[in-house]
């Protein structure tokens, strides 16, 4: 089985998600991130500062979730999103040169779009400086549109299994 198209549309068509980490005491910490989804490996990547609370939490507790959603301000039954759960780890500090060419190109494209949109915020910050890449190995994803849900599990071999559709 493959990931349903409605999930892929959200994962590939959006740039911002909300990552939830928690520390060793299970205190949650929710923050927006700029992410890239790699469908071949079933991984989500984001870049963050090595001194961030997210990094500290991931080092203490690698279980994370990320939510990417689209909201309809007129009709909440049109709201839809994907929540992915999995295990995160911190890659080496520094530039992102070691990623596969396809993923590296995605990072460049998204970074340039982000820079164009938020130039005043990141104008003097070169890509990679004091940053680490966080990789989330996806284990489960849930999709919703209004009150309807679909859930899939992803096995170690990348095998996708539909868990339920409500």
UniProtKB/TrEMBL annotation:
Q: Which domain of life is it from?
A: Archaea
Which Gene Ontology cellular component terms are annotated? cytosol
What's a single GO MF annotation on this record?
Answer: oxidoreductase activity, acting on the CH-CH group of donors
SUPFAM superfamilies in the record: FMN-binding split barrel (SSF50475)
**What are the UniProt keywords, alphabetically?**
Oxidoreductase
Q: Which ranges carry the Pyridoxamine 5'-phosphate oxidase N-terminal domain?
A: 4-144
Give the matching InterPro entries.
F420H2_bilvrd_red/Heme_oxyg (IPR052019), Pyridox_Oxase_N (IPR011576), Split_barrel_FMN-bd (IPR012349)
Name listed for the protein in its UniProt record? Pyridoxamine 5'-phosphate oxidase-related FMN-binding protein
Q: What is the lineage of its organism?
A: Archaea, Methanobacteriati, Methanobacteriota, Stenosarchaea group, Methanomicrobia
